[in-house]
Amino acid sequence: MRADLVLVGFGNVGRRFVRLLDEQRDSLADTFDLECRIVGIATAKHGAIFSPDGLFATNPAAPTAPVDALPALYPGAESVEGSLEVIERLGRSDSPTRVVVETTTLNIVDARPALDHVEAAFEAGCHVITANKGPVAFAYDGLRRKAEQAGLAFLFEGAVMDGVPVFNLVRETMPGVRVTGFRGVINSTTNHILTALEDGEAFEPALARMQAEGIAEADPSLDVDGWDAAAKAAALANVLLGAHVTPHEVDRTGIGPASAALARRARTRGNRLRLVASGRVGGRPVVRPEELPGDDLLARLRGMANALILQTDLLGEVGICQLTGGLTLTAYALFSDLITIRRRCPGQRAAPLRRIP
Ligand SMILES: NC(=O)c1ccc[n+]([C@@H]2O[C@H](COP(=O)([O-])OP(=O)(O)OC[C@H]3O[C@@H](n4cnc5c(N)ncnc54)[C@H](OP(=O)(O)O)[C@@H]3O)[C@@H](O)[C@H]2O)c1
Description:
By secondary structure, the chain is an alpha/beta fold. It is built from 13 helices and 13 strands. The strands form 2 sheets. The chain has a 7-stranded mixed sheet with strand order 4-3-2-1-5-6-7, with helices on both faces. A 6-stranded mixed sheet has the order 9-11-10-8-12-13. Helix 1 (12-23) crosses helix 13 (327-344) and helix 8 crosses helix 12. Bound molecules: NADP nicotinamide-adenine-dinucleotide phosphate (NAP). NADP nicotinamide-adenine-dinucleotide phosphate (NAP) binds at residues 8-14, 42-46, 67, 83, 103-106, 113, 131-132, 158, 162, 327, 330.
């Protein structure tokens, strides 16, 4: 089966995804009977291009080149207006499977334009896979309905804990199980800072060091003010608990200079201060620093580690840990979403069960 893809956003994640597709080309063909072609790319400042015959056929090295003006990088491709036109062009193509890969930056005010991209994709008859938390955190229910009505997929495994399966785990491997709540440490940067604080560092130097090491953003407010965790908490609540919240409705407290003394004091008591995101059916999701007993799974997470505990009716508490991070994990989230689309496509040769090993 052939799938044509357009990339809306072509930064760190989009580019790693393209390379992953290339690395996995044989496995995709042999195991999943899937051949992927990238036919369009849209960015904010580097232009937008479309080529119905596939972009990388003309310049296979381009995904590894520095991001530059796209039309110059792909001379055979047609320069187009922007993201919405790239999506529309994909919708008009004759490809049997059309997928919009949305990896633009999170807009914590209202999730736009990512939300516009997802809606435009459904209108154009395209599946959507995204690593952007915005659409699922702000508008999951409406988007899910639109996708279902159109017989399309809306998948976002990379929105929480990169490629470590959270949504896939529940959807694919826990049939009949009802998730009643969750609690987790789901923001790596703040966990890294809190670990440094409990080891004796002050807040500002710890943050500056993490910015210098590329762990924290130049503008760290999304992380330290708890917005990133709130977006993930809203996504988890909307998808797993049937909530209808946005990140702005999450009861949110971040971390700051005052967290240093609290983190050190917690440690002297054998406890740990962690930024915990939690939710339960019918309740408002919460993100706030909590002093946890030292033997709590979440208390034991140091540095970049993340974990999520799902409270369920039939399986008790189920914990998922992410001990490493990195772009490959996020790119894998998109890859696994693509495989989910392939598995759902009717009338195609079914993918065989994975052989282990
Ligand atoms: N990096 C990670 O490890 C990670 C992990 C999990 C989830 N995510 C999520 O994945 C997404 C992408 O992350 P990233 O690290 O790849 O970000 P990035 O490197 O900043 O890339 C963002 C891309 O989106 C493009 N873009 C921004 N606004 C746009 C618009 N209105 N129309 C079209 N393109 C637009 C940018 O274009 P220009 O280059 O022209 O500015 C750039 O190509 C984000 O939502 C992020 O939260 C990232």
